[in-house]
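Q: My collaborator sent me two sequences in one message, no labels, and asked for predicted structures for both. Can we handle them in order? The first one she listed is below.
A: Yes, handling them in the order given. First sequence, followed by its structure tokens:
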Amino acid sequence: MRTLKIFLASSSELKEDREQFEILINRRNKNLIKKGIFLELIIWEDFIDALSKTRLQEEYNKSILDCDLFIMLFFTKVGKYTKEEFETAFGGFKETNKPLIYTYFKDAPINTGATNEKDLKS
């Protein structure tokens, strides 16, 4: 069985999108397992109970560098941790050609009353 690790990164505002992505991966796995391939999805919620000697973000960053694919979802903002995750993935890619990086921007109406200018500029 060949396992492909996918790290899915996004800000907390895209929780529902991450959940839908997880459902999609699980559905794809039903067919891929028959071909000897398993997609292992890694999301930050998987680490909520993890302990770290430094900070939990370091555990995310280590996991990113161990992945084959890094998928970044954007909408109205990029938080400092999401930015750090992208920079970690990009640094790993420049050094080892891994993980492959894919970025996706959500195209949906934005409630301007619920956002602030700093988030939109991030």
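Q: And the one she listed second?
A: Here it is, processed independently of the first:
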Amino acid sequence: MAAVKSLLRKVIKPILFRILGENQYLWFQYLAKIKDIEKKLVEEDEMELLPFFVKEDSVSFDIGANYAYYTVRLARLSPCGKVYAFEPIPPTFKVCSRIVRHYGLKNVVMLDKGVGAQNSTMKFEVPLQDSGFISGGQAHFSGRHSELAEKNIYYPWDKNRTYGCQVVAIDQEFSNLQRLDFIKMDIEGAELYALKGMSDTLKKFRPVILIEICKFWLSGFNITAKEMNDFICGLGYGLYRYSKKDKTFSKVQSLESDEMYNYIDRIKLTPFAPNYYLIPFEQEKIIEKIREMLPKLPIN
């Protein structure tokens, strides 16, 4: 997930948190995130391709909704459809819900739940920032170890807050679902568990999936690139990566050899977690249509 960094925010946030306390600080978070959305400060390159996959009446899942960046975009693209937004962390869920109400998005269903391999109650760990507030976008299942090489880049925090949250398997929780066209998933290394818990749903509806796959997060759960790659292909999906700069939509032959999956920014020490589009094999004709349209998209 894209993040907004500025010296002003770095200075102001700790002061506001100490003065306001957490409950009042959530209003500041809400206002700040509205600004981020309005000014498109949290744009991810892959958002540019959403109109190819999300139509006026589409049904979408936003798994790891965070501060509603994708929820808002998906809801606007499908005014006659529906968006189910999953966000298990209580303070983040409150802000996300306020943002959805701010925009009057009647087609969004907010769910204060995580997504995993089975229905259960699980502990989540969320790092605490210097301000004292949580870093909601880094929430993850407890049990993921972060004492790995590049920890200073990907997980530079020493303190965490723990929450007990409800986690659902899509196959169990949505057994009566009538349609599913698109899934966005960003859940800090637990993506394989979520995919396993929705495998029947994926076989039934064949939605396109936009998924973050980060080597550091997967390693924390002892998940290898091959294991992730094989499971995705076993579901009948191909992996694709979009380059906004070059206007290319390229097939990834394997995560193990993919340069973006293996990339580490050792100069700026900025965490990098690539996003991939997962396209069902039988829908790969749409790839050519996308490639035909890419040169017509504006270059930013």
